Amino acid sequence: MTETLLSVRDLKVSYKVGRGTLDAVDGASFDVPRGSIVGLVGESGCGKTTVARALTRVIADNATISGGQLLFEGRDLAAISEREMNAMRWRDIAFIPQSAMNSLDPVYTVEYQLNEVLRKRGGLGRAQARKRCEELFEMVGIETNRLGDFPHQFSGGMRQRVAIALALALNPKLVIADEPVTALDVIVQRQILDQLRELQQQLGISVILVTHDISVVAYICDRTVVMYAGRVAEQGTMEATLTQPSHPYTMGLRNAFPDLQGAASGMLTPINGAPPNLALPPPGCRFAPRCPFAIDKCTTVSPETLEVAAGHGAACHRADEASKLRKLATRTETWMTTEMAEA
Amino acid sequence: MSHLKAAASRTLQLAFVLWAVVTMLFLMFRLMPGNPLAAYIDPTFTEEQQQALMAQFGLNEPLWKQYLIYLGNLLQGELGQSFRYREPVAERIMTLLPNTLILTFSSLIIAYAFGIIAGAWLAWRRGALVEKTAIPLVLTTRAMPEFWLGMVLLAIFSFWLGWFPAGGTRPAGANYDSLFALYTSSDFLTYLALPALTLAIYSQGLPLLLMRSNMLDVMKEDFVTMARIKGLSNWTVVVRHAARNALLPVMTSFAIAVGYQLQGNVVVETVFSWPGLGRELVNAVSNSDYPLAQGAFLMIAVVVILMNLIADLLYALLDPRVSHA
After folding, report:
1. Is A59 within 8 Å of A140 (Cβ atoms)?
2. A184 within 8 A of A164, measured Cβ to Cβ
């Protein structure tokens, strides 16, 4: 077992909404082993981006980390002072945003923005920073004569490469990539993912890759953390979670996505319904209202994470029947019945 | 190459606008009721003398011919004779224009410098008590008529406290070797203070509110969030990234505000007896001094058009997306 770089324990992030609060993340726990790519996957509003941002502690004004621990090399990021946290930002934990277009400042050249990080945060001198800029551009495969260009002069894929260069500038230990390829077309997606993987292995960094696209996880990740409605539904190695999903939600997700490799395996089957309103989450399992396998217990008792294999857990009351459910889940009719039941 | 082309087409556009303004000015004064020479001609003049005068000014010619003469004269910088002062309009305007420009730019620069800094600061302190009290205060200054504000400032600082003179540009009887000596004298500054302050208070609301609302928008942008995630200092995040981007539309509004300010000057120059173009324009119109009024209008139009050009150029300078497009 490799050493754990980051251990998220029972993380809770709450948003103040009107007079009440909403727990966008409600007790999420997962580990990031050093040198691995962990895919944080789930649909919109499941809390994956909130988890990612909580790790930088730059969260929305109305949000607070209301519980849990973020143990980074044993140090709890949720408990240290803002000053200590700021010292770690970008030097230890860097971020690749979804839309590099909007996350690069339009009025400065790319070199200025790299320099800003290298000199103000990395303490490099002018000449060193220049050298590092060129190094970083070579690393991500952009000609160094484009350093003086403004963000709008780059194509979408190139901007994403610039964002990667920016994230790697200070040799961070952990890079959080929030939907890094979502805004790109499939061919460029692959190029960027290949590059990310290559650099990650070359530099030995750890990556948390936030995505809604399970095929991206299959393509690049070592481990998978599936989130649903603010909680972790299932986690394990990528192979285990995708070939032997043990939570009905993961089974459903697999049916609902085409392969990035392009092997069309017939019709896609959607999961009917929508995620619950987090201001009024259902009692018991949060997936129960959409789950074709829900039993009475599911609607009353919140499931604990059950270890189905070493390092592979699912928060499902019926996780021990997973192999039986998996067979049922491949049938389209199984997922039709929930629609009937709900209607 | 494309830069040159863009600049050329821009200049051509401006030339067209200028021509349109000139034509409108010409027609406007021809359409006004009353004989333009009424103020000039003495009632004791005989009919022949009057006709001779009309001929001298070219007023007996058909309209199209008058128009061509007018355009021809303009091209040579000839704005005609003032009826009232019996001196060339161009000369008169050139002595007044610096006063107006100094008043306009000093007040606007103060207003914008204050407005930009205060607006950015208020956006940063969004929701705090300062913001809640400052915004209604700014709106109040926006709502105050400038002549009233001018009178209040006069009453307090000039008549009551006696800190500043009540009007004009120089002490009575004071003479300066040159205009430059006048404008750089400390006396001039004390005369400039109150009218400039009046206009500055009146004008700061626009840049302040504009800057604040732009800032609030920009602060939500991803690149500002990213700057925080990078661990950059508050100063860098707020000033270098948020304020720098929020500044763009404010700078454009500066150039346009110069045009508005020239209108506003009419009132303030009158209140403070400031010998500027605005006050002269009012006098010229009420005295039917057509050539002078026409010349003053034209001058104001030229300044507005030039400021628009400067706004365009400035925007290209400040926003790389425009200059590289």
Report:
1. no
2. no
Contact status of B236 with chain A (Cβ, < 8 Å): yes
Residue B222 sits at the chain A interface (C-beta within 8 Å): yes
User: How far B320 CA sits from the closest chain A CA (Å)?
Assistant: 6
User: Pairing mode, if any, of strands A206-211 and A20-33?
Assistant: unpaired
CB atoms within 10 A of CB B108: 23
The distance from CA A143 to its chain's CA centroid, rounded to whole angstroms, is 30
H helices of B37-164, where? 47-56, 63-75, 89-124, 129-143, 146-153
Over residues A132-150, the mean pLDDT reads 93
- Given a contact cutoff of 8 angstroms between Cβ atoms, the answer to whether A135 and B305 are in contact is no
Which residue type is seen at B84?
A: R
Strand A231-237 relative to strand A312-314: parallel, antiparallel, unpaired? antiparallel
Comparing CB atoms, the residue among B226, B236, B320 nearest residue A107 is B320
For residue B318, the surrounding DSSP H or E stretch is helix B290-318
Domain boundaries, chain B: 2-75, 93-323
- Which of B221, B231, B320 minimises the CB distance to A150? B320
Q: For residue B319, give the chain A residue with the closest CA.
A: A107
Sign of CA dihedral A293, A297, A301, A303: negative
3-state helix, strand, coil in chain A (%, to 5): 40, 25, 40
CB–CB contact A102 B221 (8 Å): yes
CA distance A333 to A312: 28
User: Which of the following CATH numbers is that of domain B93-323: 3.90.1150.10, 1.20.1250.20, 3.30.70.60, 1.10.3720.10?
Assistant: 1.10.3720.10
The Cα B175–Cα A172 span in angstroms is 70
Number of H helices, E strands in chain A: 12, 12
- pTM for this model (two decimals): 0.81
What is the rounded CA–CA span in Å between residue A159 and residue B285?
A: 60
How many Å apart are CA B135 and CA A111, to the nearest integer?
Answer: 39
pLDDT confidence bin for B242, thresholds 50/70/90: very high
pLDDT score for A340? 45
pLDDT score of A36:
94
Q: Please, what are the domains in chain A?
A: 4-92+172-342 (3.40.50.300), 107-162 (no CATH)
**In this predicted model, what pLDDT tens digit does every residue of A286-332 receive, in sequence order?**
999 888 898 999 999 999 998 888 889 999 999 888 888 888 888 88
**Closest Cα in chain A to B245:** A107
CB atoms within 10 A of CB B151: 14
CB distance B223–A103 less than 8 Å? yes
Whole-number Å distance between alpha carbons of B103 and B96? 11
CA atoms of B223 and A100, how far apart (whole Å): 9
Residue type for position A192: I
Judged by average pLDDT, the poorest of A1-15, A175-189, A255-269 is: A255-269
Q: Which residues of B touch A95 (CB under 8 A)?
A: 226, 229
CB contact under 8 A, B223 and A102: yes
For residues A233 and A225, what is the distance between their CA atoms, to the nearest angstrom?
8
Q: Is B233's Cβ below 8 Å from some Cβ in A?
A: yes
Residues of B in contact with A152 (CB under 8 A): 320-321, 324
pLDDT score, position B142: 85
Q: For residues B277 and B294, what is the distance between their CA atoms, to the nearest angstrom? A: 12
